[in-house]
Amino acid sequence: MAAASPLHRSLLGAPVIGGAAVVGFLIAWWVSAKSFDPMRIPQPGDVWDAAVQLATTGYAGGTLAQHTLQSIMLAFMGFAVAAGTALPIGLAMGMSRSAEAVFGPIVAFIRPIPPLAWIPLAIIWFGLGDGAKIFVIWFTAFVPTLINTFTGVRTVDPTIIAAARVHGAGPRRMLLDVILPGAAPLIFSGLRVSLQASWMALVAAELIGAFFGLGRVLMTAAQDIFPGMIVVAMAAVAVCGATMTWLLGVVERRCLPWLKVTP
Amino acid sequence: MSGIAFTDVTRAFERKGGAFQALEPVTLHVPDGEFVAIVGPSGCGKTTLLRLAAGLDHPTTGSVMVGGRAVTGPGPDRAVVFQQFALLPWKTVRQNIGFGLKCRGMSDAEARPLVERYLATMRLEGHGDSYPHQLSGGMQQRVAIARSFILEPEVLLMDEPFGALDAQTRIEMQEELIRLTAGQRRTVLFITHSVEEATYLADRVVVMAGRPGSVREIVDVASLRKAERWAERPVEEVMELDSFIRIRTRLWRLLRSAGAHRDDAATHTLPIAS
Amino acid sequence: MSGIAFTDVTRAFERKGGAFQALEPVTLHVPDGEFVAIVGPSGCGKTTLLRLAAGLDHPTTGSVMVGGRAVTGPGPDRAVVFQQFALLPWKTVRQNIGFGLKCRGMSDAEARPLVERYLATMRLEGHGDSYPHQLSGGMQQRVAIARSFILEPEVLLMDEPFGALDAQTRIEMQEELIRLTAGQRRTVLFITHSVEEATYLADRVVVMAGRPGSVREIVDVASLRKAERWAERPVEEVMELDSFIRIRTRLWRLLRSAGAHRDDAATHTLPIAS
Amino acid sequence: MLAKSDLRPVRRRRGPAVGPGARLTLLSAASIAFALGLWFALAASGLLPKMLLPSPWDVAQALVKNIGVPFAGATLQQHLLASLGRFSAGFALAVAVGVPVGLMMGWFAPFRHAFAPFFETFRFIAPLAWVPFAALWFGTGIGGPILIVFSGAFAACVINTYRGARMTDERLIEACRTLGAGNWRLIVDVLLPSALPSIMAGIRVAAALGWQSLIGAELIVASSGVGYLIVQGQGSVETPIVMAGMATIGFVGLLIDLGLRQIDARIGRGWRAGA
Amino acid sequence: APAAAEEVKISYQPALYWSLPFYIATEKGWWKEMGLEPSFSTFPAGPQQIAAAPSKSWDIGGTGSPPAVLGAVRFNLVTIALADDQSDTAWVAARAKDADAILKDPSILKGKEILLTTNSTGHYTAVACLKKMGLGPNDVRVVNLGPAQTIAAYSSGNGALAAAWPPFSYTLQEKADTKTLCTGRDGGAAVTAAVVVRADFAQEHPETVAKVLAVYLRSIAWQKKHRAETMAYMKKFYPEGGTTLSDHFIEMDYDKRPIYTLEEQLKLFDRSKGPSTMDQWHTDLADYLRSTGTLQKTPEAKDYITDKFLKMIADDPKLRAFAMDQG
Ligand SMILES: Nc1ncnc2c1ncn2[C@@H]1O[C@H](COP(=O)(O)OP(=O)(O)OP(=O)(O)O)[C@@H](O)[C@H]1O
Ligand SMILES: Nc1ncnc2c1ncn2[C@@H]1O[C@H](COP(=O)(O)OP(=O)(O)OP(=O)(O)O)[C@@H](O)[C@H]1O
Ligand SMILES: O=[N+]([O-])[O-]
Ligand SMILES: [Mg+2]
Ligand SMILES: [Mg+2]
């Protein structure tokens, strides 16, 4: 995936332009927050104060560190369970039309149902602990990996499959040495989306009686109508999500050393 | 015992709006130890024929036998070399070459010396730990050949194996192939678009015609090759021989008439990459 | 005035671990109206050279002039035909042929008669509303050529235009090209891996050597072609001429020595599709 | 060399007399039946009170009943219509903004560099988190629900368009540049159609995510909508109606996806090889 | 000639007892009689409702007391009347089988979980009740859940206690088979709802505000006089908001949630002998909100509670008669 064209490679690097854009955004915010209705746009100063409060004295039952740690744990668990279940099912669906026929309709039907709608059922089935929260995250994060794994398997170069067959690959070898690595780039694309979905579902998950968590901070701030704190919680979620995605990228490069470029 | 026998083989593919007849009854016999090249217009069913022999596809009617046994699926007695190399991109050169051995359950320790030997035979020393994309096309094709040869198959099935290579590399690979098949005489089915290549390499050249695919003519080269000792001479020299040029021109003429009106027919079909 | 002049052109690509010199100073002059073919081992910089003339790339040092003006970017005075046809799959044959005219701001009504004329010239009547995937390779390449010719470029840059075609179609396209360039004499830079093709088509054949790319020798064919009236004879006949075979063999020898030790160098580079 | 008896045709495939298509349909039906059966059994087992896990039959009854009798002020089809309106607006906006943004990111590097930091962070924020701001900025206006659905659907549109645009065959771009195509024409005539399969895949994901955000969108102002129905139903522990709402969302979501698939298949019908 | 009807935007939450007066007024055609043309918006919860105020999406609304106080601090909402008193119907409940043991010895609750919605009247009630039962704020573990989730969780066996406000408290009792341990009133907490107006709107259109309030009060006066008819309206109104209550709870709503006529309101808002009852109730609530960290400091009652509009009605004989349903 080379740059679209030499003409459109920019003279300045990504960090410079990206940095400038972020600074520009902050200035635009600062100016507009001053000039528009101050009740409706969180003031930079309020956000700063909220950040300080959260980091030091705490809010919604804990400090930034406690909330963040808890959310990272939860998002990761949800993501891990989602990936751990979606991968084998996706592989099965990709390799067998029967498995596709079995799982396909159920997944297609359940997939549009929002995480919020599952909360009561999650509580009834799993109680108020982490189980219910992980279940809610799982529901959202499961699908992207599943679909990408399925598509990845189906798009493995048939010539390569044929080559492996003529060299005597049995089902096990085919899975481990051909299908899995062949589908791996797409699987990782799916994992990225699942990771995003995990963080997005976190807010809903932490509605289930969470004692700590950024989602709880968000919802408490929403209850309290504390826009500054909402922004702080949003920013914390965004930073955590982006960081985990970056880590996933590192893992991806480690796992796929044969790729010329990782997308 | 490794001859290939196609007997009244047809293959029809399901298409929107009915079946598409890719091969009309084809009967072709490649005796044990012979090198047969197939040339023919695009879409005439060359790849289909080869896939039938490989066991990657099944005939609609008729029978395909290799070494006296009916073909039911791929087997290590038949190695296939594809035009696009079809190396596993996620495996190093060494792992690719050893893949078939591993599939047979051989341990790494057992496979190692064999792999090293083929690395050397194929002049790939020093590249054992590279990934395929780090190699030139010629080197990739050498890896693909090594991967097949290491299994010591009785039958070699090659589908335009040198089509993706540049002219010089191609010639080198042709010489290489002559050398390798001369060492251990093997039954070879070799598909090519190059009439020169077919003439230079094969004992017999099968000219196919298309829509539906059929054998148009079989041209014998073996007698000349033996008589003029082509195998012992550099390829440029062989290609300048009058006898060589005559066969080549004859094949060309056959092909051009076989391929006539191809474009019009092609409108209604999808060219599928071999 | 449409000659191409490369003067002391070099091109270095950035790579991990320093610059990679793809071309060492190359000086080459293609006079107005001449047909020059370039052959050379894979990776020797043929495509790089062509891209410089097309304005798709810029030299690291030296100058590239076309028609007396320095090249700064792509322009409609220079048409490029690629090996992979590079047709827009989502446009019909008609739309593909008319694409360049549309880019110039010509209305559909104005473009229509021109497009129809080229459909006829290229023997594509009846396929105007087909999509590329419905055509055979040869027809696709004819569309690509029509798309370029319709802009009446002074310079034609062709990068292995027939490399993806099968042998028979390739020969037909070669004859077609002879016919077209004979009609309106144009400056042509033609890259090929086929020594026969270069010999058959070109006035002069440039043999390049690799790593870094350089011009090894230039072989004149024009005088022979004229003397023996190749253009008026069928290609099979020409290719059997002693004179033809002699030039071809000479080019081959040059090439094989130019390509020596290529593989070792290739380890450290990624072959990039032209 | 060949024994006559060996000349029997190769068996193509072992399997039942039913065609593969029919067999797969059968499997799908069996799987759905199994899931429903499991649900029936669980509901009938009495492990959970009926109030918390009604049987599929109760849910179906609640669903049918709500078609005639309003719940939370409207019949099911009225709720559905209201939800579809909100969804369409937010989803259409996400596509209308996301696809051009993705194309611009694919084509103009400076745009990509400038936009990426926001994009790579904002996409982790749940639609639900925007509810307070949606209320603050748009009040009771349609803008609020649109913002929520948009925040759910936008990222998928951008990412897939961007990836699709970046995957565009460079040779096509160069060929068109040599034919005189400018930026605009390249984006419209080359990048966009080339990215179309990826864009459509993204749009399908976006539709699913946007549709999922409905509950959030209907938390701001309430008087109608399937999301509202679910929340109100949850509030009074009318589990059958809640599940009827979930089933409706699931089913309509499925229909939306099928519709988009149809569009996808139609768009490239002419030119996509094998279409 | 009659002037064109005045437009006014009114907000409330569906299916609540204190929303009923808006509904009855519409049914009775009293808005028109007052020359008003209201448009209504309903919000599923208080935070969204008051957050929609600064965009001028609504002018006057009914809302729970916590959002009323929060809205005063955040968005300059002014409290102009009391909507209802739900102190008897917001409660802390336990499973019927456990209730007696708990009442006998509340200390067995130590370390147990109570399910409730934080920063709500339910929480406010719970804090007061726990104190009354002799339990400190850290003796039980508060699990924060939305009202619907509280019911689902409690009825599937989670938590030792649950707290909620009506109608969720009713649902809790009905569907989870609970017994009330302590109401807001038992704990000494005034759990109320209020009528609020945007300060800028009140400034610009005092007459309109007075008229809307007069209509609201007329409904109240009428409701107090017509028990059976009011309950009939409740049975029509509640399901439109997705709530279906049994007759028992309909009666409870009517009988146990005091509402106040103009005269009674004036007494509640009377500051002639120091802070009014209303001031006291809201200040207590604000103190609670400060204790949870929602508010940084307790707002001055007189800054956001006013009897100005009640007095405007009282001082205008025509309005007064209308508001007392004597027209
Ligand atoms: N799986 C398939 N489904 C449908 N049609 C097929 C399939 N495989 C091949 N065909 C058709 O059968 C015919 C023969 O195909 P085949 O690939 O054998 O030709 P070929 O001679 O190898 O051509 P080429 O020289 O282009 O590789 C073609 O028309 C092709 O379109
Ligand atoms: N964009 C690029 N970045 C880095 N290296 C490049 C780039 N383009 C070409 N090269 C390198 O420059 C050398 C010349 O490449 P070029 O494509 O011109 O060769 P070629 O003669 O056309 O080869 P072929 O016959 O295989 O098409 C090669 O080693 C190639 O790897
Ligand atoms: O997270 N949801 O907005 O449903
Ligand atoms: Mg083929
Ligand atoms: Mg090239």
Structure description:
The complex is a heteropentamer, with one copy of chain A (263 residues), two copies of chain B (274 residues), one copy of chain D (275 residues) and one copy of chain E (327 residues). Chain B has helices at residues 46-54, 93-103, 108-121, 137-149, 167-183, 195-201, 222-228, 235-240, 242-258, 262-266; strands at residues 4-15, 18-30, 35-39, 61-66, 69-70, 78-82, 155-159, 187-191, 204-209, 214-220. Chain B contains ten helices and ten strands. With 275 residues, chain D is mainly alpha-helical. Chain D has one domain: MetI-like (MetI-like fold). Chain D has eleven helices and no strands. Chain E is an alpha/beta fold. Helices cover 49% and strands 18% of the residues of chain E. Chain E is built from 17 helices and ten strands. At the A-D interface, helix 1, helix 4, helix 5, helix 6 and helix 8 of A face helix 1, helix 4, helix 5, helix 6 and helix 7 of D. One adenosine-5'-triphosphate binds at residues 13, 20, 22, 40, 42-48, 269-270, 272, 274 of chain C. One adenosine-5'-triphosphate (ATP) is lined by residues 13, 20, 22, 40, 42-48, 269-270, 272, 274 of chain C. Chain A: Keywords: Cell membrane, Membrane, Transmembrane, Transmembrane helix, Transport. Chain A: Residues 68-248 form the ABC transmembrane type-1 domain. Chain A: It is found in: Cell membrane. Chain A: The chain crosses the membrane at residues 12-31, 72-94, 106-128, 134-153, 197-218, 225-248.
In short:
Chain B is 39% helix and 24% strand. Chain B has helices at residues 46-54, 93-103, 108-121, 137-149, 167-183, 195-201, 222-228, 235-240, 242-258, 262-266; strands at residues 4-15, 18-30, 35-39, 61-66, 69-70, 78-82, 155-159, 187-191, 204-209, 214-220. Chain B is globular, with a radius of gyration of 19 Å.
What does the secondary structure layout of this molecule look like, with pairings?
The complex is a heteropentamer, with 1 copy of chain A (about 260 residues), 2 copies of chain B (about 270 residues), 1 copy of chain D (about 280 residues) and 1 copy of chain E (about 325 residues).
Chain A: H1 14-35, H2 44-55, H3 64-95, H4 97-110, H5 115-126, H6 130-154, H7 158-166, H8 171-205, H9 214-224, H10 227-255
Chain B: E1 4-15, E2 18-30, E3 35-39, H1 46-54, E4 61-66, E5 69-70, E6 78-82, H2 93-103, H3 108-121, H4 137-149, E7 155-159, H5 167-183, E8 187-191, H6 195-201, E9 204-209, E10 214-220, H7 222-228, H8 235-240, H9 242-258, H10 262-266
Parallel strand pairs in B: 3-8, 3-9, 6-7, 7-8
Antiparallel strand pairs in B: 1-2, 1-4, 4-5, 9-10
Helix pairs in contact in B: 2-3, 2-4, 6-9
Chain D: H1 20-45, H2 56-68, H3 76-107, H4 109-122, H5 131-138, H6 143-166, H7 170-178, H8 183-212, H9 214-217, H10 226-235, H11 239-267
Helix pairs in contact in D: 2-11, 3-4, 3-6, 3-8, 3-10, 5-6, 6-8, 8-11, 10-11
The complex binds adenosine-5'-triphosphate (ATP) (2 copies), nitrate ion and magnesium ion (2 copies).
One adenosine-5'-triphosphate binds near residues 22, 44, 48 and 270 of chain C.
